[in-house]
Amino acid sequence: MNRAQKAAWLMVISISTAVVLAAIAVAILYYIFGMPKVAAAGLAFLGIAGVGGLGPLIFKKDKGPVTCDERDRLINSRAALASFSASYMVVGLTCMVPFFVLGPKSSVSITWLPFIFGAAGLTGFFVHSVAILFQYGWRGKGEKS
Amino acid sequence: MNKAQKRTWLCFAISLVTLLIAAVVITFIWVNEIDVIDIKTKSPAAFRISSLILTVPLILIVIISAQFPRKYYDERDKLIERKATIIGAVGVFIFLTGVIFFFYLISRVGSIRTLLIVWLVYLAAFVWFFISSVAALIQYRVGAKKGLS
Fold first, then answer.
1. Is there a contact between A87 and B93 if contact means CB atoms under 8 Å apart?
2. For chain B, what is the domain count?
3. What is the reported pLDDT for B113?
4. pTM score, two decimals?
5. How many domains does chain A have?
6. Burial category of A40 from C-beta neighbours within 10 Å (exposed 0-12, middle 13-18, buried 19 and up)
7. Which residue of B has its CA nearest to A74?
8. Measured between CB atoms, does A102 come within 8 Å of chain B?
9. Contact at 8 Å (CB) between B140 and B5?
10. Which domain holds residue B15?
11. A100 occurs within a structural domain
């Protein structure tokens, strides 16, 4: 398993853990307190996703003269393309939800807009990692980091 | 000029014209303090027609994509397109972040119409087309200077 695969696995695990824990926390807090604002505190668990960003620091670069070849670059650019497409799709869909649910005459608070970008960012990183793992293979096939 | 370059030039022209028209319309609405929802209430037909006109550039881009399919692309065209699309995506997220920051600064009531958010996403798509077209054209230009055309 090479460095990119290890970093991608770390990202997938940290984002998945963060989302699952945040969902559970929000559900429990909402069940206990019944207030959306208190329940929203459960979203703090999303901070765990930040651990995924430490991948490049945790997994050191290859000591050899060639750290990545053309195939690695192609895989990375394809994954980046997939992640940006997924992010934009999330932005598009979440922006259309208030339009169709509340109607064109209604308004939403501007404070919600950064949350849309947060969701898009998480989706982007997750899809990027999944795309890398999908292209390399989910398990190591002899690649060395 | 190959088919990929022709397609890029056409996408560039369409997105540029669309963004320029959008800039003029937004400035007009902004300066005259026109409420778009009022137009919808007072003249639903005019609103529907203008909404249909909004879709024309997107339809043109779809037609161009059908006219210049990617099966005619060589490896270099694919590489340039991929890089340009990623640059465009980075640009569009910078654009969206800038617009939201602008909304924060100017908002008096702290809210935004849902219709405007949908239009923002639509406009962002053309910003993506525009930036990626420019990025692709620059790469073709650089390639031509190096004698790769």
1. yes
2. 1
3. 81
4. 0.80
5. 1
6. middle
7. B79
8. yes
9. yes
10. 3-145
11. yes
